[in-house]
Amino acid sequence: MEKIAIAIDGPASSGKSTVAKLLAKEFHFIYVDTGAMYRAVTYLAIQHKVPFDQEDCLVQLIKKYPISFEQTGNGQLVFVNSQDVTEAIRQADVTSAVSEVSAHGKVREQLVRIQQELAQSGGVVMDGRDIGTTVLPDAEVKIFLVASVEERAQRRYKENLSKGMKADFDSIKEAIAQRDYLDSHRTVSPLVQAEDAVKIDTTGLTIDQVVAKIQAVILAKGFEIT
């Protein structure tokens, strides 16, 4: 397949990461989980007791502790300064603070630069909240995934239980709604659908059905799927 860039945006638990991973694997593309990068910075702030409102200090953490990814047979691993933080960045304390950390312009500037470098050679699937608008504005394919808050909360609830994590459905639902508000109202790179993105509502759809819809979009744009 032609080495295009596929940008997938959408709110929390809309299915972005799962779908992006499947597409990247199918097309033999690089997968970049930008959300994991912001979570990694939040994790670092917690570990080093850096207040979430200290923008310059957060930037220094990014510079001092490199964030990297490793593809394995069991999925993608996330590392901070060579330490595997794949599970740690999904804990509740990180989830509750990541919106505040990701709202800082200088933090986003640092991470966007890294994300754009990863995508320079093409053949990339990248998911997040501002990929089609800010990170990869020239991406050949842009997708904006949405789903009801109820369904997204159910997904996160089941995911947490499957990982042996504590889970309270009502708290998760409230947290997702709050994050939607914060992400869509932040001053820097708010969550918004790019004008040329194709919106797909994943409510009630299986992952395979969502992947099929995205493949149809790719074909409709004239790119071959092999």
TrEMBL record:
Known EC number: 2.7.4.25
Residues reported in the UniProt entry to bind ATP: 10-18
Residue intervals passing through the bilayer: none
Domain Cytidylate kinase residues, every copy: 6-216
A single GO BP: nucleobase-containing small molecule interconversion
InterPro entries: Cytidylate_kin, Cytidylate_kinase_dom, P-loop_NTPase
Record GO cellular component, one term: cytosol
Keyword Ligase: no
Record keywords, A-Z: ATP-binding, Cytoplasm, Kinase, Nucleotide-binding, Transferase
Family: Belongs to the cytidylate kinase family. Type 1 subfamily.
Name listed for the protein in its UniProt record: Cytidylate kinase
